[in-house]
Amino acid sequence: MSGRLVPVTDYSPARADVASASAEPALPHETPWCAGVFTGIGSLPGTDPDEAAALVAGELPDLPHLVELPNRGVGADMLGRALAICVDLPAEVVPSGWRLARRTGRDMRRANDFLAWDLDAAEQHYAGAPRVKVQVAGPWTLAANVETPRGHRALTDDGAVRDLAASLAEGLAAHLADLARRLPGTRFVVQIDEPSLPAVLVGSLSTASGFGSVPAIPAAEAEQVLAELVGSLGDRPTVAHCCHRDIPLNLLRRAGFGAVSLDLTRGSALPPAALDAIGEAVEAGTVLLAGIVPTASPGGSDAPSPDTSSYSMAPPGEGTMPESMAPQEESGRGASGPLSYRDIAAPLLDIWHRLGLPDASLERVAVTPVCGLASATPSWTRRALRLSRDAARLLADRAHG
């Protein structure tokens, strides 16, 4: 085996023609969520966008996503991708990470190039897809991890936070318009990644000196900024993604997100408050993107080489993912033995049983890996996506009795 990411299928010209011919503007209430849906979070291993997009088109035919390949280095990371989407917001990489700058330099040109290449790959491989998911770091994760020109977190400057949020909203609109030109007839699902939001809300982020903490942002303020971003997206289906154990589920729902992507591998061992929030969300009609597939082979034999670094803000070997953005330890990595799709679905069904939710409500659950797959091996990446597919089919069978 070469270790390359090889798809099992791809969109055929016939399928593309049918989809394009039948595509019409969807009504506001129409969503991509139905029984049996499965997708990825965004990041994948490797450095070849064409190869990665071919894999996604083959393995995730109902809801492919724009690929993210952070192992390419500076500019391909989560923050670099978001800054490339933002409008009139130049930045550069310094030893501590991304920092706002006076003019566009080499780092931003790299980020823009990576984005353009990924869009080219999507245009080639996703033609005819009824829906495509796009991902971008949200305003609070940007504010928590991007520095002002003076070297402080943008989070400490109200003006910088407003500028980041406004630039992101404007840039995301242009990004979606570009995708619509490249993929006519396709509707887009927008995923806002907010891994740092819990740290922002509790005030656990360190100051630039490392001797203090940035004050917590009031929940009402965080909600308002997110609600404005969701509002700018119109009728497009929106997803809030956060794989932190303390995801603020109720806040995200109030901000207007129709779906929430979260780690559910702990099953009913989740804290009672978290279980209650999940139950309320399901009963209110919120769609759950259930992160129940491990991001690495549970047996450990498929572990990635040590030189890979998800969402690295610096060149390979010179930086790691900020702590506030890192997935939590309870991500299903520690189990042993081969996993079946029934094993994968068990924690979610455990939650449903504990909360007394009807099986019919499983129709509003999509299956995903716990988080991004950038640090996975190619073989586990294929396996994880296929486990997502099979677990989603199991849930669909349960939903339909």
Give an overview of the whole structure.
The protein is α/β, with parallel strands linked by helices. It contains twelve helices and eight strands. Helix 9 links the parallel strand 5 and strand 6.
Keywords summarizing the entry:
single chain; 401 residues; alpha/beta; six-stranded parallel β-sheet; globular
Uncertain segments are 1-30, 303-320, 329-335
Overall pLDDT metric: 86
Number of domains: 1
Number of DSSP E strands:
8
Please write out the topology:
Layout: H1 13-22, H2 49-59, H3 78-85, E1 91-94, E2 97-100, H4 106-125, E3 131-137, H5 139-145, H6 158-182, E4 187-193, H7 197-202, H8 219-232, E5 238-241, H9 249-254, E6 259-263, H10 272-283, E7 287-293, H11 341-355, E8 365-369, H12 378-399
Parallel strand pairs: 3-4, 4-5, 5-6, 6-7, 7-8
Antiparallel strand pairs: 1-2
Helix pairs in contact: 2-4, 3-4, 3-6, 5-6, 11-12
In short:
39% of the residues lie in helices and 11% in strands.
